[in-house]
Amino acid sequence: MLAVTVLFHEWVLGLLALTVFYWLVVIVFAVGSAFMGRLGRDLSHWWDALHGYPKAKARAARFSKMMDHLNLQDKNKEL
How far is CA 66 from CA 27, 30, 52, 62, in A? Predict the structure, then answer.
């Protein structure tokens, strides 16, 4: 009877450990996904722009050019 009780407790503790490990993995992947997703891109763009890297300057120039083009299209539609 004692052996059954010990095995049961080991099984319960093992199941508890697997559950905790599973949720830790889920949390790590969720946090990782957040940083690798939009938040990570925003932080990367901010960091590049802060330090004046050429890619950030080129990206800003392309964005400005695109916005100018869209504004011109809107003005042409109004005419």
Answer: 38, 34, 20, 6
